[in-house]
Predict the structure.
Amino acid sequence: KLLDDTPRGREFLMRTPMKRFGQPEELAGAAVFLASDAATFVTGSVLVVDGGFLASGVNQ
């Protein structure tokens, strides 16, 4: 909740399609996948878990 109350936090939320900050448990699936045998051939990749922030065009 701390970032919600700052100008920078509000700007971030305005540019995020989900209109909220992610919760730690929402990162768990990505972390479990990357640590699992299912990801043994995954290298040099970025798995973005950001509520659509990057897809919305960060530099607008």
